[in-house]
Structures are given as C-alpha cells and as structure tokens.
Amino acid sequence: MSVDKDTVRRIARLARLALEDERIEPMVQELNGILAWVEQLKEVDIEGVAPLTSVVEQRLKMREDVVTDGGNADALMINASGGEDHFFVVPKVVE
Amino acid sequence: MVLPSNPTDLTLAEAREAVAAKKISSRELTQAFVKSIETARPLHAFITETPERALEMAAASDARLAKGEARPLEGLPLAIKDLYCTKGVRTTAASNILSNYVPPYESTVTQNLWNAGAVMLGKTNLDEFAMGSSTETSWFGPTVSPWRAKNSVEKMVPGGSSGGSAAAVSANLCLAATGTDTGGSIRQPAAITGTVGIKPTYGRCSRWGIVAFASSLDQAGPMTRTVRDAAILLKTMASVDPKDSTSVDLPVPDYEAGLESGVKGLRVGIPKEYRVDGAPPEIDAIWNKGAEWLRAQGAEIVEVSLPHTKYALPTYYIIAPAEASSNLARYDGVRYGRRAEGASELLDLYERSRGEGFGAEVRRRILIGTYVLSAGYYDAYYARAQKVRSLIARDFTEAFRKCDVLLTPVTPGPAFAFGANSDDPVAMYLNDVFTVTLNLAGLPGLVVPAGLTAEGLPLGLQLIGKAFDEATVLRAGRAVETAANFTAKPQPWWRSA
Asked: Structural domain tally of chain B?
C-alpha cells in the first residue's frame, strides 16, 4: 500500500497538523519509504494469533470511586496561553 | 576510601559512602558538578541547568546528614532527562510545543528520587518527544558526544533519545542520570558513550508524569557509570504507583544485595538471529568476548533462537507511531503548550499550533500513526502488528525455557557522526534493531560497556532477562563489567572549547 498527496493531506487533517504545501511531496516519499519497509510483516503467519495488548499479565487495577484530586484550577491554568478566569479561550466557534 | 582529586570522578556508590562518612559535604559535591556542567556547555548535554535548586537541595541534605537522618540517596546530585515532569522547573520534551511548559506537578519517579534525598542538577537534552537515536531532532539543538574517534576532531552523536543524560554521565557532569526507553533510548546511548543503562521490565517504574510517547512501550530507567550504581538508582526509581495502573504490584527487591554472587551455573543464551549479515566484525568480536568472559566465570553458554527478530523493527514502527499519534493529540495549543498566533478559527488554531510546534520527525510519526489507525487500514497495519508482537514475545518465552539470561550486541554499529543517517528515516531506525524487541516484549535489558573499537569508540553488550528478573540481569552484567574492566574515559576536549 502507498499514499499519495491527497492521502497525506487527508491524514494531516485527521491529525490536526498543518503541513506546508512544499512539505507534502517529501512527506509522501518518506511515508511510502516507511510503508514499503513495513510491508514485510505480511510474510508472517498470524493465523490464530491473539494480539498482544498488555506485556505483563495483570488485571487492570480498580480503585474506590472517590475524589482523589481537584480544586487545582489555578495550577491548571498557568500553562494556558489566552486563559482567563479559569476559562480556556479559543476563537469563536458559534456565530 | 580516599577521595579523588576531583569529586566528580566518584561513582554514585562511592559518593554515597563519602557523603555518609562526611568526607565531603553534599554542598561541596554539588558545587563540583555545577562547575563541571558550566565548563561542559559545548556538549549541550542540558536543556535547563538548575544550579540554585541543586545547592538548596544540597544544603537541606547536609542539614539532614548533620542530624543523622540521611535517606538512601542523601545529597547525591543527579541529572534528569527533560521528559520527566518536574514541579516548577520547565519541562520541554525537547519540543518547541512545550518550550515554555512548567509542570504544576512532579513525576512519580523523580518524586521517589527527591524523597530519597537526591539533588537535581538540571534537565538533560533528548530527541524531540524521545523520537530519535541521536538527539539530532531536539528543538534546542543536538547534544555532542564527549567521545571522539582517535586523532579526530569530528563531532559524534551521543546516541538517543536519552543522549543528554548519556553524555552527562560519561563526561562526569552528574553522578548518574535518568533516562527513558521506548525502543532503545536508554541502552543505545549508554552503549555509544561507554556508560551503563538499564531498561527495567514494563511496569517496574511508574510512567506517571513522564511525557508519554508510546504508552505500551515507554519505561523509565537509570543511566550510570557502573552496574552497582544502576542497581542503587533503580531501587529508588521503581515503585508501585496508584497513579499508573500499569505499574505492577510487586515489591521492589534490593538489587545491590546479590550483585556480586557471580554467574556460576547461570545459563546464558546467545540468540542466533542477532548475528546479522554485514555487521562490523568488531560488534561480533565483542559479543564473542562477552560470552567467553561469562563462560570463564562458570556460566553455561547455550544457543537459542528468536525467529521473529527481523519483524521487530517494522512492528515497532507501526505500534510506536500509532500510540504516539494518540498520545500527542493532547497538544492543542490551548490548555498548555505553544499556541500559534493569529488563528481565525478553532481548527486553524489546532492545526497551526501543532504544525509549528512539532518538528519534522514528530510530524512524520504522527502522520504514520494516524494513517495506520485510520478507517480501512487498522487491520492491515495496527492489528497485524499487535499479533506479530505476540509472536515476538512468545519467542522470548520459548528462549527462556533454555536459559536464564540472554547476551546480545546493543547496536548494529558503533557511534556515528552527525547527519550520517539523517536523509533516510529507515536507516536511522535500524539503530534500534537489537533493542526494540525488549520493549515489544516488555522485558528488562541492561547495557554494560565492554570495550573500544579500533578507532577508540565505546562498544557495549546487552543482557536481557525474564520479566521482573532485573536482579539476575544486573548480576550477569556485573560479571561482564568485572571481566571487561572498562576504564576508558573521553578526553575532556570540551573544557578548552
């Protein structure tokens, strides 16, 4: 499988990643290089093999459903650019 | 013990003893490292130096020592990879998008270190979001290896992604450092810089507060000058953490305790698939030597097979970007991180903040990851890779029926120069061929310096263990270290630069 310019534009949109026009063609080449290289996985017989979803056999831990943290609005806002009064500010989305 | 003329030459174990015996104060020791960091700026091992904080922490340690209340790492100065969130200290992941990020919280691993009395010297350089094998993708510029080939002034890469930590340990800019390892990011730079590094079993160290790259592969670990130092640091870094549901509920053993027990009767596996065509003869030679060293100390050498080895890298380069594309979706330019100027609408704000904030390699991996997870391609790529991953893990399970530990090379070649692999992403990825298998299988791997190439550059050996059997890995590593007697250090050219 290989990608073309339109596919790269589409996945860049899915990934919310602005890509300059002059970067599209080199990215097509690079992605196709990587995709051609991973094609070799098709040789592997995976019939009846379960996917590995966890490297360590352990039941996912459960905890009491209680509040453990919170009330940190000031701390949470210190890295927000354009934050005001505990609100994250973005361009207008509703006319 | 007699103190060396420069206290920065001490190992972590020696410094622990010297500080505890009050032969040197934490303040004096810390001051010596602060000075060595200042004179080593041409290496660019650090993104952020924190000398004031270091000296404050050292003073607090000296006060505790005076009261007889010393903790396990009291007053010992360390460097921290700039992927660990440190409260109130800028944490960048070597990315433009986090170039001004100051975490309001502390990672569990670093909190464990400070709770044990350790002192923070600063935050070390890395490849952007730990994606790379040379530190060349750092937005702040690369780290330069302290090592140079004989009779050469050409700058070499320190390996990556934990290249800043490796350079800092190798050049005596800290007693030890932390690293993280997603595909070899502790072990490859350790091998290249003649230092020791261990990637513990997945789940041994908490991932909480470490900037996420690929969550099913990421693991924290120590980078040190000796195997004993790695055992000391791992003991404190590892913990069971309620904040990381994948941290495993097993007590942390005292890794130092059995370190000198030797390898008599230990079965050491040599995986035949790690002998690759076209590998430099020096890599094979040091591997054979390592096996010989262990045999001479009473270990039994057995050949084992890991038949799916050749599929590990392509599997990794589907799974890691897929997880990265998901993890890095959080950088929206709104809640934290760099925000693009002048965006007219929300989608534009996201796309521009991310497009400007991420470097070329990170963008490439986000796009690959998005593609392999996208509708219509998931089964062909991601689901298939997860199944091959099962086979890779099963290979190790089978091999460990015949042996207790594996001995392998670390990288397919020695250190390389800047730009050597930059044109071809796949060529750079091949650096990880002997290391990614462990991340895919979740197993612990230790790298120990074993010798020098004809050009005078370090070569390491890797020991691989069963899950949560770091103790055996460290014991075997100690045996290799003893036999190798690696004492070479880089010439400090950076001090006159």
From this structure: 1
Quick one: pLDDT band at residue B423, thresholds 50, 70, 90?
Answer: low
Structure tokens at B462: 């890797």
% of residues, chain B, pLDDT over 90: 92
Q: How many residues does chain B have?
A: 497
pLDDT at A95 (0 to 100)? 76
Q: Which residues of B touch A46 (CB under 8 A)?
A: 384, 387-388, 391
Question: Domains of chain A, with CATH numbers?
Answer: 5-41 (1.10.20)
Would you say residue B470 lies in a domain?
no
User: The CATH number of the domain where B210 resides is what?
Assistant: 3.90.1300.10
Least Cα distance to B428 among B39, B163, B137 occurs for: B137
Whether residue B380 lies within 8 A of chain A, CB to CB, comes out as yes
What mean pLDDT is reported for chain B? Answer: 95
Convert the pLDDT of each residue in B434-481 to its tens digit.
Answer: 999 999 999 999 999 999 999 999 999 999 999 999 999 999 999 999
| Three-state DSSP state, B212 | coil
Q: Which of A18, A31, A41 sits opposite B311 (nearest CB)?
A: A41
Predicted ipTM beyond 0.90: yes
Interface test with B, best of A9, A44, A93 (most B CBs within 10 A): A44
For B214-233, what is the mean pLDDT?
A: 98
User: What CA–CA distance (Å, rounded) separates B292 from B290?
Assistant: 5
Please say whether the beta carbons of B228 and B259 come within 8 A. yes
CB of A80 within 8 A of CB of A88? Answer: yes
Please give the residue range of the domain that contains residue B33. 15-261
Task: Locate B234 and state its tokens.
Answer: 């791992």
- Rounded Cα distance between B180 and B85, Å, is 13
Cβ contacts (< 8 Å) between A30 and chain B: which residues?
364, 425
Q: What are the start-end ranges of the H helices in B5-154?
A: 12-20, 26-38, 51-66, 108-115
pLDDT in the model for residue B414: 75
Half-sphere exposure of A29 (CA within 13 A, CB side): 7
Helix (H) or strand (E) holding B169: helix B163-170
Residue B385 maps to a domain: no
pLDDT of residue B497: 53
Predicted confidence at residue B422, as pLDDT, reads 63
Task: Select the residue from B204, B388, B429 to test the A interface by mutation, using most A Cβ atoms within 10 A.
Answer: B388
pTM over 0.90: yes
Closest CA to B109 of B245, B249, B241: B241
* B283 within domain boundaries: no
Half-sphere exposure (Cβ direction) of B341: Cα atoms closer than 13 Å: 0
